[in-house]
Amino acid sequence: QVQLVESGGGLVQPGGSLSLSCAASGSIASFTAMGWYRQAPGKQRELVARIRLGGVLRGLPDYADSVKGRFTISRDSTKNTVYLQMNSLKPEDSAVYYCNVAKRWVGVTTGDYWGQGTQVTVSS
Fold this sequence. Notes:
Layout: E1 3-7, E2 10-12, E3 18-25, E4 33-39, E5 46-52, E6 61-63, E7 71-76, E8 81-86, E9 95-102, E10 113-114, E11 118-122
Parallel strand pairs: 2-11
Antiparallel strand pairs: 1-3, 3-8, 4-5, 4-9, 5-6, 7-8, 9-10, 9-11
């Protein structure tokens, strides 16, 4: 089984930055993508950013429209770790952020692995 451990959440002022990390233990070679979802109170869990793990599209990123130009996802293959650099943070970015390793680029998340979540709060 794959286990995911997130770190880097916290409290930041609007306009500030945070960096999240997610370290995977176990093999993720059979997975298609790795990235981050978030869920705010009263809202559905939504994709924030993800990166393609292999194939000819290895390294291809994908971002939610709401974070394009502000967030950057990257991966350290040696450490099986994905990072999310979050800049120009807004209060609406406040949520619990969950790391995810996905079986599919498109479709349901059945069979995916999830981290336990890390809280990001953007407030003055």
